[in-house]
Specification:
The protein is an alpha+beta fold and 135 residues long. Helix content is 16%, strand content 35%. A hairpin with a 3-residue loop joins strand 5 (96-103) and strand 6 (107-115).
Length: 135
């Protein structure tokens, strides 16, 4: 009986955690949303190289353009949510942009980047954000 009493709170806690994990999706607003894979062009510059899903830059130059990227088609209307996974195998530089959002006539207005020792951060409208905090 004693082991059953211990298992009930444990099972309840596991069910709660499993429930929270299943709700932790990337979606940030109510749908209905549907999956869509827009077209893109691969762009490489300097020592940038794209090989499948691997993007590499081997130069440490800060005076020349170094890019390895996918440039997705331009959207003129509607709302979009993007979801992706990033694995940084090595970080030879610092403050490397992983994603930029551009607006016609304005330029980049949102960037997701990584800095040493591997922390992700966001730059939006000139303000650096880590989570909800402006730093």
């Amino acid at each position: 009986m004693q082991s059953v009493k211990r298992l009930v709170p444990l099972a309840a806690a596991l069910a709660l955690v499993a429930g929270l994990v299943s709700v932790a999706h990337a979606q940030v607003a109510n749908g209905p949303w549907s999956s869509w894979s827009p077209t893109y062009n691969t762009q490489e510059s300097g020592t940038g190289d794209v090989n499948g899903l691997n993007f590499t830059i081997t130069s440490t130059s800060t005076t020349s353009e170094q890019r390895a990227e996918r440039r997705y088609q331009t959207f003129s209307t509607g709302s979009r949510q993007f979801e992706g996974y990033v694995k940084v195998n090595s970080l030879g530089g610092d403050r490397i942009c992983l994603k930029q959002t551009f607006q016609d006539g304005v330029g980049p207005w949102n960037m997701i980047a990584v800095k040493k020792p591997g922390s992700l951060y966001e730059v939006q409208g000139g303000a650096v954000r880590i989570g909800a905090e402006v730093v």
